[in-house]
Design goal:
Pfam families: PhyH. This is Chlorinating enzyme. It comes from Phytohabitans suffuscus. This protein has 126 residues and is largely without helices or strands. The chain has no helices and four strands. The radius of gyration is 19 Å and the shape is extended.
């Protein structure tokens, strides 16, 4: 497979582009250099990426999806498919990071797969 500048682990994400003719306006591109420990949060529809890591240290990114408990996450499916592969959702679950779940739509995990509990956020400021 020929490598392209937009390849990621061998996948060409430009193939998923809804509008193949879309070309971002370079004058609207914003670059942000992050210091160790800093983070940025994007809306799901914000196109984003990163420049190559030219430092001698490793860089790590997390992808998280925050939704209200009223949202049904992966409703009525047991796997995800794409790029010729399928991923089981057997171990998938949501984590309640704040508040309470009054809906019960999603499988909630209260501890990670190693048995360590997820900390609760005190919404009363205590």
């Amino acid at each position: 497979m020929e490598s392209k500048s937009h390849d990621f682990f061998g996948y060409d994400y430009s193939e998923l582009q809804l509008d193949k003719d879309w070309d971002p306006n370079e004058s609207e591109v914003v670059e942000m250099e992050m210091k160790a420990g800093q983070f940025v949060i994007f809306l799901a529809k914000c196109v984003h990426g990163s420049l190559p890591n030219t430092s001698d240290t490793k860089r790590l990114g997390f992808a998280s999806r925050y939704v209200s408990p009223s949202v049904r996450v992966y409703e009525n499916i047991d796997s995800l498919s794409g790029f010729g592969d399928s991923i089981s959702l057997d171990y998938h679950g949501s984590v309640l990071v704040s508040g309470e779940d009054k809906y019960g739509h999603n499988r909630l995990h209260h501890e990670n797969l190693n048995g360590f509990p997820f900390p609760k956020v005190d919404t009363n400021g205590r």
